[in-house]
User: Fold these one by one.
Assistant:
Number 1:
Amino acid sequence: MEVLLAEHAGYCFGVKRAVKLADDAATSHPDGVHSLGPLIHNPQVVEQLAKKGVKKVDSLDEVEDGVVIFRSHGVASPKLFEDAQAKGVTVVDATCPFVTNAQRDAKQLIEEGYQVVMVGDRNHPETKSVLGHAGGEILVTESFEEIKAYLNKFPKKRLGIISQTTQTYGKFSEIVVRCLEICEELKVFNTICYATEDRQNAAEELAAKVGAMVVVGGKNSANTTHLASICGNRNIPVYHIETAQEIQQDWFPGIEKVGVTAGASTPDWIINDVIRSLELM
Ligand code: SF4
């Protein structure tokens, strides 16, 4: 059976950087490294880091000394930096630079007096970190109608728009264009990071050429689950697995080509393991 890997698959820049920073911190501070929340949505990597001494905590209150790592989505408030420093805890900031840019742009728009809209999911940790750093009111939504209703209630002539980094360009640009109808001045920062969309487009393209797809990544990873559902639109068998051990012999009857893709928090070593196992079938 031929095994084809999607053109874009696995670790994005921000996740790769966060894992490297955590690895380095574990080496230089063997006495105590903590990650505030799971560093990434991949249980195998979190487990591997735990073996090296990186312990997950849910709150800074659980950290007395050593190092705390802020994960790639960013933290909910800049005050956490001050609180950590006040406790004598060293901060390793693994916030992805794309998220830092979104935080900076949101803050700038608020300081310039715009009503700020963030096109995204208000429950996502990244969105919460942007809200926490911007220091002002931001409407988070993926619905133009909601923006319109909000402006009817709280009229503002100047609208500033940013995007959650994982937003698709299509959705973002559609909302931006429609907002031209409802304000006098519009300022837009395109804060999309194309890692997610690149992986989605590559998965869709590959799924069109093969008899089955294997999607590799944490079952708790939203972007991996989304990749699986995109591949599923092609009406081929799609298997979402975390490791090669889950692959079953009877999954590919008569299939000549199988495609492999992986979410942005899946490391190369897991993807390569899966490819090797599939090639032996
Ligand atoms: S998806 Fe983009 S913004 Fe998010 S961590 Fe990866 S590189 Fe950074």
Number 2:
Amino acid sequence: MKKHIAETFMAVLLILCFWVLARQAAEVSADLNEPKSTGKVIVVDAGHGGDDPGMIGIGSLEEKGINLEIARRLKKSLEKAGYSVVMTRETDAGLYDEDSHSKKSQDMQRRIALINETEPLLTVSIHQNSYQDPSVKGPQVFYYEHSVQGEKLAKALQESLNTELSVERPRSAKANTTYYLLKRSEGVLVIAECGFLTNGEEAELLQQEAYQQKVADALTKGIINYLAMPD
Ligand SMILES: [Zn+2]
């Protein structure tokens, strides 16, 4: 009888051990299979700022201010859609120290450090374009040539901007291999050039709150479409 009890006890103990080990193994493999980003954080990067005005358009219009206005609206719009947003800047200031010998490179390095530390779902960098020919206009989204996900996101944003802003001559998203942010971001990052500050009509529109909101909403729509796509 005693032997029986001991055997039963050992069997239960063994089953318990197996159960504990199996659970631990399942947890470990779940960790390994998890994508790098599990949260719903999106980084919105307002290009330039502080000493760096970015492109100068018609009537000395500076890119940095338009970028920040659209970025702020994009943040709100994404938060409404349920995402958390990290901004690289929320004021006119750049990300450099005043006594830095190379403000521009310090600014860029800090943007990249912030983006890579945040490990977001994706990053959208907001910029405005310029060109010698003032008739050139329309939004254009850039992605890193070697990034499959970047290309998918850029195409989704480009399509949404073309549709929502009723662009007459729609452009396609464009590959790039030289932009610092595109090269150095560890995650998915695209650069959205929302319009041309050298085109009178677009420069005027980009300063209007209603149009800035339209651009932000179009970007949000594109982001949602991209995130709903299968891998
Ligand atoms: Zn720019």
